[in-house]
Write a structure and sequence with these properties.
alpha+beta; 27 strands
């Protein structure tokens, strides 16, 4: 119902998704509009004063590459330049390394204005055409989403004519919130054919919780919500993959540029089906909840082996304080066990279906089995180099049980533009497999009542599978997607 939609004057609080496993550690700070004696000009990529000297704004120069948008304000200085510029650090008090700056300007080159001058809201940001929600996942990554909204996004939205009464703000506060919001607000309105846009200040976990909340009871009149991601998780795999070709250095500036200038496109998703008895594991492994229809949906990755164990073991309050460094800390523990032995060899039968033909991977011991719809799990970690944005192809990366050093060689290859694909050992008995598939099925051979070595990852969500159980991943057919995502082509 419309009355259930929270208003910005009385912000709704939902639980914060603890499945948000990807986000940068960059902070933001707000700087009020400055009263500057020398109104800046644009020259050689920098804003300069009337006397030709570089304009000093806080701790650095205003660069073209830091620009988010320009608004026409009229008056003596007819333009206002909104930018996110690096700030100094090192004080005892935590200082945000980026600050929103608003700089007045007079004469600006045509090409600069053509690129950044605000000329109107895209349809999906028009409150006349769409109900607009801003979802702030407070626990994503290192917890920077609230600060980013309060110090940066709120002021930018006002600058483009979106006052706070134009949208609904939802701040999450515990582990089920994003899915609850998707079910109680987004799904209800989508089933009434209402157009909605969600600005998601989160990581990939916020996306997967939203998708799973929306796919439970779709009606025939279901109208896909439009999601625009502002990357505030730890790895931000979906965002980095969608913007793989971008030359913009800051993912936060890129997120804002995409929000203002992108185009909604259907977001491909996959369906992951588990054997009966499988459980969603939350609360640092203390809570196990049955899965609805034994199914989860994802848009990024489904994995078993090292990747799944790594995500599961690092998803704690203590590890999250380290941002994406938490993965490296846990990887060291998994690849160099305290007993001095090799990393765990995961026991399973792996079946790949390609072109309607099923084939079994010729090994029973595995180190890594990962199915993905995206190219990058982090900005520089290219797990699937052949993947292109929104191509809808499931690709599987897999290799057998290895030593810790061999695994590190593979990971270094992924950080080297995906050069791990096809990597072979000197004995010729093992190499990194890479397949485009219609379906992946894993039959678990690990014994024991506990599911430590039978944990799977779906976009950061962790599932424990019973002994003798299975996991199956396949595409959701085109046209049945849950959402559109705002995307920039390069």
């Amino acid at each position: 119902m419309a009355s259930s939609v929270p208003s910005s004057s009385s912000e709704a609080n939902y639980s914060s998704s603890d499945s948000d496993v990807e986000s940068s550690t960059t902070n933001y700070a707000q700087s009020d509009a400055h009263s500057i004696d020398d109104t800046p000009y644009h020259r050689d990529g920098e804003l300069t004063g009337q006397d030709g000297t570089d304009m000093e704004i806080a701790d650095g120069k205003v660069q073209s590459e830091d620009t988010v948008l320009i608004t026409a304000t009229g008056g003596k200085a007819p333009y206002s330049i909104f930018s996110l510029a690096p700030t100094g650090s090192g004080s005892a008090k935590r200082e945000a390394p980026f600050a929103l700056r608003i700089t007045p300007a007079t004469s600006l080159p045509r090409e600069y204005l053509d690129k950044y001058l605000f000329r109107g809201l895209p349809t999906y940001l028009s409150p006349v055409d769409h109900e607009i929600h801003i979802l702030i996942s407070t626990l994503s990554g290192t917890g920077l989403a609230p600060e980013f909204f309060d110090e940066v996004l709120l002021r930018l939205l006002k600058a483009v004519g979106l006052e706070d009464k134009s949208y609904n703000v939802v701040r999450t506060n515990s582990a089920d919130s994003v899915k609850e919001f998707a079910q109680s607000v987004l799904l209800a309105r989508a089933n009434e054919a209402k157009k909605q846009t969600v600005l998601m200040l989160s990581g990939d976990g916020g996306m997967v919780d939203t998708i799973n909340g929306l796919l439970e009871t779709k009606s025939r009149s279901y109208t896909k919500p439009i999601l625009s991601q502002l990357p505030l998780g730890t790895g931000n795999a979906l965002f980095h993959s969608l913007h793989r070709s971008s030359t913009t250095l800051s993912i936060y500036i890129q997120g804002l540029l995409t929000l203002l200038h992108g185009t909604p496109q259907p977001l491909p998703i996959f369906r992951t089906t588990f054997s009966p008895g499988s459980r969603l594991i939350t609360n640092e492994g203390q809570t196990a909840t049955p899965l609805t229809n034994n199914t989860l949906y994802g848009a990024v990755v489904a994995s078993y082996g090292l990747h799944a164990t790594l995500v599961a073991d690092s998803d704690t309050v203590e590890y999250r304080k380290h941002g994406d460094e938490r993965f490296k800390l846990v990887a060291k523990e998994l690849l160099s066990p305290e007993d001095g032995g090799p990393p765990h060899a995961y026991q399973a039968t792996v079946l790949l279906t390609e072109g309607g033909k099923e084939q079994e991977v010729k090994r029973k011991e595995h180190g890594y089995v990962l199915a993905t719809l995206v190219s990058n799990l982090e900005k520089t970690f290219t797990i699937s180099p052949h993947s292109t944005p929104l191509d809808g192809q499931i690709r599987v990366v897999h290799f057998g049980a290895t030593t810790g050093e061999q695994t590190m060689q593979i990971m270094r290859g992924a950080y080297d533009s995906g050069s791990h694909i096809g990597m072979e050992w000197e004995d010729g008995r093992e190499k990194v497999g890479y397949n485009t598939v219609d379906k992946l099925r894993i039959k678990f051979l690990e014994e024991g009542e506990g599911w430590k070595w039978r944990r799977c990852c779906v976009d950061g969500l962790i599932v424990g599978v019973e002994q003798g159980g299975f996991m199956e991943i396949e595409n959701v057919e085109g046209g049945a997607e849950a959402v559109d995502v705002v995307f920039d082509k390069y």
